[in-house]
Each structure stands twice: as structure tokens, then as C-alpha cells.
């Protein structure tokens, strides 16, 4: 049986989407990631999609969604990747361990900024998620 991590940020269009795709690519199927935002944007940022594709990571099914849509999911860990999401993180129906690891928001910046954040998420966040959920 797999464990589920919810990755939360404000817009659910850059950092949390890249983290979701990277977890599912690198740590799946024993650890499954979903993501959401406290104020989701209209679409996943083009730079996030391109940075993931350049790393050979699938972007199928990625789309911004509000945290209310996942509140009743069976989540084993919540990760906030921006300060705003940490401050407005909702109360879940049952106690869920939470960690906060903020990353730079590359939204509106050049592709290399998205690639840098992608690589930081992979190097810093994925080992912690794996340790916490294994």
C-alpha cells in the first residue's frame, strides 16, 4: 500500500506541480504525490512543464486545483513549499504531519530559474519525503 504526500503552495502552478511530478517519477509507486494551492492559478506554468519535460518527467494530468478539492484525501504528509501556503494551510479532518520547505517562486522568470528550482526540489525535498514516508 502506498503513502500519499500533499504538496501545497499558493498558485499550484510552479513549485508544487514540479514537486508532485518529481515525487511520482522518482519515488513512485510506494509514495504518491498530489498537489494543490490555496489560491490556484489558471494553468501550470509553461516553464514548469518545460523544465519537467527536459528532465524526462511526465507532466500528464498536472493541473492547478484548490486545496478544498483534496481535504478529504487520505494524506500521510503535507509539505508546504511557500510561506503563504504555510500560513494559510487548512486544518485537515484528521491530524497530518506537516513539514515546511520553501523554494524560490520562478513564476514569470526564464527557463533556467524553473530548472534551478526543479533541481533543488529533487535534491532537497525528495530525500526528506522518502525518509518520512518509508
Structure explained in plain terms:
The protein is an alpha/beta fold and 134 residues long. The protein has helices at 15-26, 46-54, 83-87, 111-133, and strands spanning 3-9, 31-37, 77-80, 98-100. It has a four-stranded parallel sheet with strand order 2-1-3-4. Helix 1 (15-26) packs parallel to helix 2 (46-54). The longest helix is centred in the C-terminal third of the chain and has 23 residues, at 111-133. The termini are close together. The mean pLDDT is 93.
Strand order of the largest sheet: 2-1-3-4
Number of helices: 4
| Residue share in β-strands | 15-25%
Mean pLDDT: 93
Largest sheet: 4 strands, parallel
First CA to last CA: what distance?
11 Å
Gyration radius (Cα, Å) is 13 Å
The helical percent reads: 25-40%
Q: Structural class per helix/strand content?
A: alpha/beta
Topology as a string of helices (H) and strands (E): EHEHEHEH
Total beta strands? 4
Q: What are the segments in which pLDDT stays under 50 over at least 5 consecutive residues?
A: none
Any idea what the shape is?
Answer: globular
Amino acid at each position: 500500500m502506498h503513502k500519499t504526500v500533499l504538496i501545497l503552495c499558493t498558485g499550484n502552478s510552479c513549485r508544487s506541480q514540479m514537486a508532485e511530478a518529481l515525487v511520482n517519477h522518482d519515488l513512485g509507486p510506494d509514495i504518491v504525490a498530489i498537489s494543490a494551492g490555496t489560491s490556484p492559478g489558471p494553468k501550470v506554468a509553461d516553464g514548469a512543464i518545460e523544465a519537467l519535460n527536459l528532465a524526462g518527467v511526465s507532466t500528464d494530468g498536472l493541473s492547478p486545483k484548490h486545496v478544498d478539492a483534496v481535504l478529504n484525501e487520505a494524506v500521510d504528509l503535507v509539505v508546504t513549499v511557500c510561506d503563504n501556503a504555510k500560513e494559510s494551510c487548512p486544518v485537515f479532518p484528521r491530524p497530518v504531519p506537516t513539514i515546511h520547505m520553501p523554494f524560490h517562486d520562478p513564476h514569470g522568470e526564464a527557463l533556467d530559474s524553473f530548472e534551478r528550482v526543479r533541481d533543488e526540489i529533487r535534491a532537497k525535498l525528495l530525500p526528506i519525503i522518502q525518509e518520512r514516508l518509508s
